[in-house]
Design brief:
With 173 residues, the chain is an alpha/beta fold. The protein is built from 6 helices and 4 strands, in the order H-H-E-H-E-H-E-H-E-H. The chain has helices at residues 2-19, 25-34, 46-54, 90-99, 111-115, 146-161; strands at 39-43, 78-82, 105-109, 137-139. NDH-1 is composed of 14 different subunits. Subunits NuoB, C, D, E, F, and G constitute the peripheral sector of the complex.
Length: 173
């Protein structure tokens, strides 16, 4: 009787190995998050024009699942800071970031958002939005091409899908 039960159990395990996908729930959630970013619109200067062009038919970021730009930060999980950020705009940037639900990511698009750009020496400019919010991906250029934004989104997707290979920092700390 025990031999028959063991044989039946082995057959069930073999069948399960062929037909059942075993994974952790985090991997499944990260896969879903990485393939359906919902960016909040936060265009500040000329980089915002390139961000809008990325949604057009020539580049078409919707083929990657990123076409849903949200007007409300409560419905977004990615903030794309596109352009020059002044010191007066910094508290609003932080407020919008704080309104986004976890998990959330930030992309600094362009030289101005990354390091201040040509206005870095100005009294009213931030020398990078990473002084206000934690930035996950930097996209260089003045302004960067729409293809660069697609590349940055794909880098963020890789970062989300492989948190064990890429160190993700906990936001807000």
């Amino acid at each position: 009787m025990d031999v028959a039960k063991e044989k039946e159990l082995r057959e069930a395990e073999a069948l399960m190995e062929k037909n059942v996908l075993l994974t952790s729930i985090d991997k499944v959630l990260n896969w879903g998050r990485g393939h359906s970013f919902w960016p909040v619109t936060f265009g500040l200067a000329c980089c915002a024009i390139e961000m809008m062009a990325a949604g057009g038919p020539r580049v078409d970021i919707s083929r990657f699942g990123y076409e849903v730009f949200r007007a409300s930060p409560r419905h977004a999980d990615v903030m794309i800071v596109a352009g020059t950020c002044t010191r007066k705009m910094a508290p609003l940037l932080r407020m919008i970031y704080d309104q986004m639900p976890e998990p959330k990511w930030v992309i600094a698009m362009g030289s101005c958002a990354s390091a201040g750009g040509p206005f870095a020496d100005s009294y009213s400019m931030l020398t990078g939005v990473d002084k206000i919010v934690p930035v996950d991906v930097y996209i260089p250029g003045c302004p960067p091409r729409p293809e660069s934004l697609v590349y940055g989104l794909l880098q963020l997707q890789h970062k989300v899908n492989h948190p064990d290979k890429v160190r993700l920092l906990k936001h807000g700390k």
